[in-house]
Amino acid sequence: MRRLAGVEDEEKWLAEGIAGIQHNAFFMHRALDANNLREVLKYSALMLSELRTSKLSPQKYYDLYMRAFDQLRQLEIFFNDESRHGLPVVDLYELVQHAGNILPRMYLLCTVGSVYIKSKQAPSKDVLKDLVEMCRGVQHPIRGLFLRSYLAQVSRDKLPEIGSDYEGDANTVMDAVEFVLQNFTEMNKLWVRIQHQGPGTVREKQEKERNELRDLVGKNLHVLGQIEGVDLDMYKETVLPRVLEQVVNCKDELAQYYLMECIIQVFPDEYHLQTLETLLAACTQLMVEIFSQPTVDTKIVLTQLMDRLSNYAASSPDVLHEFLQVEAFAKLSNAIGKVIDTQIEMPIVGAMTLFVSLLTFTLRVHPDRLDYVDQVLGACVVKLSSVPKLEDARAMKQVVALLSAPLEKYNDIVTALTLSNYPRVMDHLDDGTNKVMAMLIIQSIMKNDSCISTADKVEVLFELIKGLIKDLDGTDTEELDEEDFQEEQNSVARLIHMLDNEEPEEMLKIICVVRKHLMTGGPRRLPFTVPPLIFSALRLVRQLESLGGDITGEEVPTNPRKIFQILNQTIEVLSSVPCPELALRLYLQCAEAASDCDLEPVAYEFFTQAFILYEEEIADSKAQVTAIHLIVGTLQRINVFGVENRDTLTHKATGYSARLLKKPDQCRAVYACSHLFWVDDLDGNKDGERVLLCLRRALRIANAAQQMANATRGSSGPVTLFVEILNKYIYFFEKGNPHITPSDVQSLIELINTEMQSDNGNTTIHSDPFFTSTLRYIRFQKQKGGLMGDKYDLIKL
């Protein structure tokens, strides 16, 4: 009836029980104060009779028990003082056995028994044996559990263990162990029997109540683990077999799972290691039974065992040889294999959790045995292959943890790349998780500054991160978040710079492998991934140049021409994406590298491709301006061209400059072209006349721009262009261009002053400071004197 009662009824019954305990405790305390033993026993028995109730849930019963327990502590103090009650403890022990009801009688007997042991008038083992046997008289599950819990509590400091005040003969430790084991066995039986109390319709509530009581049973195992003198032999021959026998025979899933967890937690790690085979045999047997109950998450049992052993291995290098002696890995691997093979219906997340724990154990105990690591991954592949598609998010998370473990342990992706089953596990991830794992791999490489130095390893690596470098089946890049996509591609770009080998032949193989993978990336990825590949190849070109040119390899000769052919083909793909501005920049970089290698035809070809892109693909006016300045800047630095090729390219550049849309852009591009005809470090390429022609042409364009501004806005506008041209005049004047005379500089200064005055005195904020600074520089040069000062003396300000 108690199980059908409501919360309000239980509260009422609890209140009545507490009131009864308090009422009888009041009279008991009066008797204690009067040292009246008879009255003490009378009211203490009445008080303890309140614990005979069957109406309360375990939680409420615990509240009632604690009220009584507090009173029993006072009672024990009274019994311990013979001068107060005047009766020898032996007689007192006999007297309390005459209490009317068995439950009060047993509580009193345990209390007096504690005093009896403390008096040392009888061996501790005899009293304890007597008590544990007589407690069999209470067979109600809840009442019996709390009674035996009280017995365990009052006897904990009175066990006849080694070093104790109550130590007995040679078998004293066995006596202590026997008492605890017997009490544990009886408590477990009572705990299991709770599920059979009351109607089956309240099974869920029963299981919850049983779960609340489990610590009462588990405390016995904690005591066993703390008994002094229980060595490995005793644990192996007596303690573990007896406990496992009880665990297996109780045939209760909740009890089996909890007690196995207790065994793993309370006994020393070295004991687990030395009894691993026995423990795993029981564990495997229980797993087969427990996994048939989907409500119990029993994978934790094996997982906790492996975690304990892993931590033990990590605690000291000195213990690792013990793992080798007992062949721990083989035993654990076989046990997990049996569990997974037997339980075909086991959730995939359970199997993955076991594999993660086994791999963690392997990496801590046998970090040098990569074959063990690969074996665990291989077993994971077999299990994953039995599943049509991995959709469980929790299982996916465990697979990521499995793949991350080697990266964290070795801090070196190169080691992980030697594991043949590593990529096979990754193949079972969905596209999103595959990308997450690929990012973790790249982050590991960056964090540890790992260098992948062979083409074979690069091939494996790029197969692992293929989710980032190409569209997987069914993946639409348009649906990706732009910020996430850019972060992924930037990570791939950084990764390319971590691929390096001092041997040019191997480095070329690496570049070819990377190119093969990147070319499958599609138009959105190429602008991110091609530039680092190009610069990596250019670094190889310059390395070859420093070594003296070609290197003949076993398969493909490594020489700059071969590399430039690959670069040309690669950039051509990028230009068709289309991404012409980026392709043009890369063409110019390659042209400069070809110039450094003294390969004029190659450099000319790259410039030709850059000009074709400019003509056919770049239509935006701002992009055209940027492209022209890049072309001019690159061409100015290159010194490999002969007169004819240089004239052709220079003519093209100046022509494009003059055809820009906006006059100011035209002007700036044209005066920038003047540097193409005057290169300081190139003998024979100082054509002062053509420099002057460029500057005069720029001046005409600037004048036209001023006139257009006057016609459209009624004002001539800023004179910035004239000031910029003046600075170019001064630059070439200082460089010794004979065609730039002081009178040219003088005339341009007067022109600027005229333009500024003609604008109704409204000088602009931007041009005036620039012009003032230029004039200040001229005055400084005049005052400095010397050869340069003499040249500037002819300029009148």
Give me some keywords for this one.
797 residues; mainly alpha; 73% helix
What can you tell me about this protein's structure?
With 797 residues, this protein is mostly helical. Among the domains are: 1-122; 702-797, no CATH class. Helices cover 73% and strands 0% of the residues. It contains 39 helices and no strands. Helix 1 packs antiparallel against helix 2, helix 12 packs antiparallel against helix 14 (276-290) and helix 17 (328-342) packs antiparallel against helix 18 (348-365). It is elongated.
Report the radius of gyration as a whole number of Å.
45 Å
Mean pLDDT: 87
Question: In which range does the helix fraction lie?
Answer: over 70%
Our count of helices gives: 39
What best-fitting shape do the alpha-carbon axes yield?
elongated
Q: How would you characterize the largest beta sheet? A: none
The count of strands amounts to: 0
- Residue runs with pLDDT of under 50 for 5 or more positions: 291-296, 763-767
N-C termini distance: 116 Å
InterPro entries: ARM-type_fold (IPR016024), Vps35 (IPR005378), Vps35_C (IPR042491)
Keywords: Cytoplasm, Endosome, Golgi apparatus, Membrane, Protein transport, Transport
Main location: cytoplasm
GO biological process, one term: retrograde transport, endosome to Golgi
